[in-house]
Amino acid sequence: MTDLQTEIQDGTGDLVVSGGDLANDPTLSTACFISLFSDGRADVDEPSLTSPDTNDLRGWWGARLLPSDTDDDFGSLLWLLERQKITSEVLNRAREVTEDALSWLSEDGIAEEVVATVSRLDFDRLLIAVEITRGAATEFAEVWEGVLDAKLETGPGRVKLLFR
Questions:
Q1: Is 18 helix (H, G, I), strand (E, B) or coil?
Q2: Which domain holds residue 125?
Q3: What is the DSSP string of 57-98?
Q4: Displacement of CA 51 from its chain's centroid (Å)
Q5: Are 40 and 156 in contact (CB under 8 A)?
Q6: pLDDT surpassing 60 at residue 162
Q7: What distance in Å separates the CA atoms of residue 96 and residue 118, rounded to the nearest whole number?
Q8: 25 - beta bridge partners?
Q9: Based on the structure, what is the number of domains in the chain?
Q10: pLDDT of residue 157
């Protein structure tokens, strides 16, 4: 399982070029960042939509091509919180959507546990810390090489991933 390596700087993600080629990332880092920062598709009745008459539910267009019995959602609903006032409810919702976006790690046997902690960083930013524990999980053991006990950050206090 290899992804194209993504580098996050100043809140923006970009692919990494190494020696004139796109670099590969054989670890979980890029997969986790893509899961968190790709827009998941919102339900039509989502109460967090900025306007009740909006038709922009975002999400990955390819999800519509998956069989209807597939429960594989792609991305997260963190985008719904961008314009929300930071309250305790928003902090709880951010934790829920973060853990939901990364739930595939435990569902697919890659990690034993995914736990997110969300706090207010300053007036208009959240700090999301995610601890991903391998534990007894045995699937895709190679993706853990090089990231066990690693701490990755997206920039000045946005998201921190801790692999254990």
A1: strand
A2: 3-163
A3: ----GGGGGS-TT-----SBSGGGGTTS---HHHHHHHHHHH
A4: 24
A5: no
A6: yes
A7: 10
A8: 3
A9: 1
A10: 46
The more confident residue out of 18 and 163 is 18
**Rounded to whole angstroms, how far apart are CA atoms 36 and 66?**
20
pLDDT digits (tens, 9 = 90+) for 94-109: 999 999 999 999 998 8
Give the model's confidence band at 7: pLDDT under 50 very low, under 70 low, under 90 confident, else very high. Answer: confident
User: Which single residue is written with the structure tokens 């890659």?
Assistant: 110
Count the alpha carbons within 13 Å of 29 in the hemisphere toward its beta carbon.
22
pLDDT at position 33 is 84
Which candidate, 160, 74, 73, 144, places its Cα nearest to that of 110?
144
Phi and psi torsions of 155, nearest 5°: 145, -155
Residue partners of 76: CB distance under 8 A and separation at least 6? 35, 36, 37, 38, 39, 40, 97, 98, 100, 101
Q: What is the mean pLDDT of residues 4-24?
A: 80
Which residues is 127 bridged to in the sheet? 119
* pTM, 2 dp: 0.81
Q: Quick one: tokens of 77?
A: 């609903």
**Assigned token pair, 110:** 């890659």
